[in-house]
Amino acid sequence: MTPQEFVDWYGDGSDGSCPTEQQWQRILALPADAPVTLVNFFKLNESAQYPEGFSGMDVNVAGQEAFDRYASVSIPTLDKVGGRFLHVGPFAGQFIGEEEDWDIIAVGAYPNRDALVALYSDEGYRDVFVHRSAACARQKVLMAAG
User: Fold this and answer.
1) What is the C-alpha to C-alpha distance for residues 108 and 112, in angstroms, rounded to an integer?
2) What are the pLDDT digits (tens) for 13-63?
3) 96 exposed, middle or buried (CB, 10 Å; 0-12, 13-18, 19+)?
4) Beta strands in 22-74 (DSSP E)
5) Could you tell me the CA-to-CA distances from 18 to 24, 39, 58, 60, 139 in Å, in that order?
6) How many CA atoms lie within 13 A of 11 on its CB side?
7) DSSP assignment, residue 62?
8) Rounded CA gap, 69 and 91, in Å?
9) Count H helices, E strands: the chain?
């Protein structure tokens, strides 16, 4: 896979909903055998914000419901590619550092870079990613590798 193929599938990342081309390059440049951990921070929309013209199911739902639609596929797909969640739960506040406001924290562990790439390459995962984007007012994902 190339960074451009991921951008074609997910978007250019300019709205913060997915990795940018530069971030995809960084991911794909990781050592193939290095474990990867992602720490996801999610702030949910009160009401899901689906893109204009999205159809196939009710779009007049809460951000949490849209996020649940995403999670119903992303969690088993993560397992399928060899990853696992170390923790998923509500944000409880800052311990050290500048205060931030989030709703959900999810820590995912991947045995290697290829498992992470396999998740984002999975057709079913790509299809439900729209629910993640609709659910989130903002998100931040930190990456550790090695």
Assistant:
1) 12
2) 999 999 999 999 999 999 999 999 999 999 999 999 999 989 878 999 999
3) exposed
4) 36-44
5) 10, 14, 23, 23, 9
6) 11
7) B
8) 20
9) 5, 4
Q: What pTM does this model have? A: 0.92
Residue 122 forms beta bridges with which residues? none
Rg value, the chain, Cα = 15
Give the model confidence (pLDDT) of 59-117 as tens digits: 999 999 999 999 999 999 999 999 999 999 999 999 999 999 999 999 999 999 999 99
Helix (H, G, I), strand (E, B) or coil at 9: helix
Say if residue 122 is exposed, middle or buried (CB neighbours under 10 Å; 0-12, 13-18, 19+): middle
| Cβ proximity of 43 and 141 under 8 Å | no
74, two tokens:
């992303």
Q: Which residue has the higher pLDDT, 56 or 6?
A: 6
